[in-house]
Amino acid sequence: MTVGHTGGEHTGAGGVGLELRDLRADCGSCFALCCVALPFSRSADFAVDKDAGRPCHNLQDDFRCGIHRHLREEGFAGCTVFDCFGAGQKVSQVTFGGHDWRSEPGTAGRMFAVFPVVRQLHELLWYLTEALTLPAAAPVREEVLRARDEIDALTRLGPEELAGLDVAERRGRVNPLLLRVSELVREPARAGGQGGRDRKKDRRGADLIGARLRGADLYGADLRGAYLIGADLRGADLRLADLIGADLRGADLSGADLTGSVFLTQFQLNAARGDAATRIPPGLTRPAHWSATATAPARRAPQGGKQAQDRTRAEGRAARGGARRDAPAGRRGGRPKGRGRDGK
């Protein structure tokens, strides 16, 4: 079987089965690594500053969050967005064999250093595993399978080996393959009227902060690494769009259609806004903070609304930290490092 948005398992050439649940966070099997290993920057996402390696003041002795049910109200919306892709339980239960950093303080430094590494590897596993479910990617299936099995093997290395791993180099190997998968999947939409490429939909790495894209035809668009912070995407057609690493923080997806979108992750949905009419791929979960009802279709903002748009863009630039990226890595700005748009 294959793993994708719908679940299941894919057994690689080496006979190792990778199940979808291995790429989903299981906080009950983790030693609260995201609450300790990663730094927080005081912002709209986090109410306080926190250094890497220092436990969040809300963390309890049993590794549970003391304000879990009220994170957004207490100013910790960033915690509700974060997704470790199952790296937390892998490091806690596999890499360190179930020995936690509180009962064995000597493991703390190594554990906290390894966690961001494994998270990035697990994110790559998510994309490669999804690629194995896409019929259009059949021409590169064996390459994807080999790459997936190689990355999976790396996640099972010891602490010292993981800490010294050059993740950027590994991403560099995988990214061209993911791009090829994206091109194959989007080929029907990429062809223009005369069989040429529709350049209007090539928005890779584009600055679309606060952009007014309500009802936009983004079918099959290349939005890899695009900055869509606070963008108005209400009712937009995002079917078959490549969203790997797109920054959707605060973007309004109410009524948008994301079915069939390529490399969309749960943390991207969590960071955005939506409603009951937003269509998402099977296997991903509608965020709890989204509106339970379908909002009324909004009228296009008049051109005179430029001042408000400029404000949104300025806020978005401050949040993104000024860095552009094109492949899986960590988020800048208000998010804790290693918590964000890994996908670029």
From TrEMBL:
Residues 277-344 are annotated as: Disordered. InterPro entries: 5peptide_repeat, Pentapeptide-BTB/POZ_domain. Residues 308-329 have a biased composition (Basic and acidic residues). Residues 292-302 have a biased composition (Low complexity). Pfam families: Pentapeptide. It comes from the Bacteria. PANTHER family: BTB_POZ DOMAIN-CONTAINING PROTEIN KCTD9. This is Pentapeptide repeat-containing protein.
